[in-house]
Amino acid sequence: MSVPAGSSSSNRMTRLAAILPSNRLLLRPEQLSAYESDGLTAYRSRPLAVAVPETTEEVIRLVRFCHDERLPFVARGSGTSLSGGSLPVEGGIVIALNRLNKILHLDPAQRFAVVEPGVINTQVTTAAAVHGLHYAPDPSSQSICTIGGNVAFNSGGAHCLKYGMTANHVLGLKAVLASGEVVSWGGRSREQIGPDWCGLFTGNEGLFGIALEITLQLLPRAESYHTVLAGYRTLEQAGDAVSAIVASGLLPGAIEIMDALALEAASAAVHAEYPPHCEAVLIVELEGPREGVAADRLRLEAIIAASQPVEARPARDAAERAAIWKGRKSAFSAVGRLSPDFIVQDGVVPRRHLGAALRQIGELSRAAGLRVANVFHAGDGNLHPLILYRGRQPGELERAEALAGQILRLCIKLGGSITGEHGVGVEKRDYLPEMFNPDEMDCLQRIRAAFDPLGIANPGKMFPVAGAPALHHSGLHPLEAAGVISRE
User: If you placed Cys at 365, which of 200, 372, 394, 411 could pair as Cys (CB 3.0 to 4.6 Å)?
Assistant: First the structure.
């Protein structure tokens, strides 16, 4: 989709400079360089400017300015997107939301919080903890990622098996759409009438507009926890243990798996201790009322014993539980100790196919001559293979991207999805038509156009760009290839 030209460049910058003070409009190359990339570091793109609003009114003015000028914009929080979802658009602006970081209201009686988009995920639970409450979605980057980004990508986390994704915890939204219209949806209760606009907006990857205020559901903290770390000789054994747990009818708060490479990295990074001589460890956490956890613990112990682990270690206290989760939460960043570069994939397969998926990923890894570390939310089949490569070695990035594509196609073949929580972004956009037929793709694009007729909100993401193969970053920017921007 091409964007009609707005006013001249000089007039445009004059108008933009009138919206924010000069110290919150970043224009110099050294200022812009910090925003050139996000968590998908193989891709870089320099924006025209970075705007740093401090109020919702300033965000609204910026979006309306972009609409009037037909100027592409990308909303950004902490930049932790692993799919290139907050990659800037050359010739467009970045609207950085980190200073909209207030918890506007927290009601412990009604169990909700109203927050701005720049609030860090863990800050919500910290504020709610004094009331015996917490915010359930817990992505691995929760100590830095923002609620606005979580809404944009419908983030999950280790405990999404029991509690669901971000969409299951958003009660209400105030947002400015790409057209400049300000909307308010939902409220402070689950009892709503009419279309679920909050559910539609959550996971839009920034293609509809920008969330300004988010009303989040808070939940009581569990009375009791029981966390078990079990080591297995093979990944398939660990996957089979997951199937057995789910088939038993138990609903743990979390079921996670890490393979040998991920264990090596976590051990080096945070000195996590794991059973020796294991190709995989399984983390299972029960939580809830004390009596219920005590009963489920006996059932879980029997299932794990029958799965023939090398060793099973229940956490004896809160400190041991925290140590288990510290190793898991650090896995992504810790892999940087094993390789200078890696791609994190995010495909999903039905749980019954976990063993087969892991076996085939291993076969693809060996065929490509690249190591793959597996860390994933086993409870809902959300795989996170980390493909290790050396970006300075000619051809290795391309081989890694090709392997990533093979893994995505494997997930589709097994009846799964190309993304569970990281989003499509720029990384997976050309695989979307392999999941959806032409009529479905047309429906998706028409929904996007209803919210953003000009196509200025985070363009070049999610939907395929003609002539730009998936996972390929050439010297030509994909929006140039599509005719959206020009370097002339």
Answer: 372
pLDDT at 8: 66
351, 287 in Cβ contact below 8 A? no
- Measured CA to CA, the distance from residue 205 to residue 346 in angstroms comes to 15
CA distance 24 to 140: 30
Nearest in space to 115 (alpha carbons), one of 40, 214, 23: 214
Q: Cα angle vertex 192, ends 187, 194, to 5°? A: 115
Over 60: is that where the pLDDT of 470 sits?
no
Residue by residue, DSSP assigns 136-163 as ----TTTTT-BHHHHHHHT---TTHHHH
DSSP code string of 85-98: TT---TTSEEEE-T
Contacts of 192 (CB under 8 A, 6+ apart): 186
Token pair listed for 135:
């915010």
Exposed/middle/buried for residue 277 (C-beta within 10 Å: 0-12, 13-18, 19+) = exposed
pLDDT tens digits for 405-455?
A: 999 999 999 999 999 999 999 999 999 999 999 999 999 999 999 999 999
Residue with tokens 């429906």: 443
DSSP letter (8 states) at residue 215: E
Radius of gyration of the chain (CA): 23
How far is the CA of 94 from the CAs of 36, 45, 346, 477, in angstroms?
A: 10, 11, 25, 17
68 SS3 class: helix
Cβ-based neighbours of 358, under 8 Å, separated by 6 or more: 235, 236, 239, 374
Q: How far apart are CA 113 and CA 92, in angstroms?
A: 33
Residue 263 is which amino acid?
Answer: L
Alpha-carbon distance of 153 to 169, in angstroms, equals 13
345, 129 in Cβ contact below 8 A? no
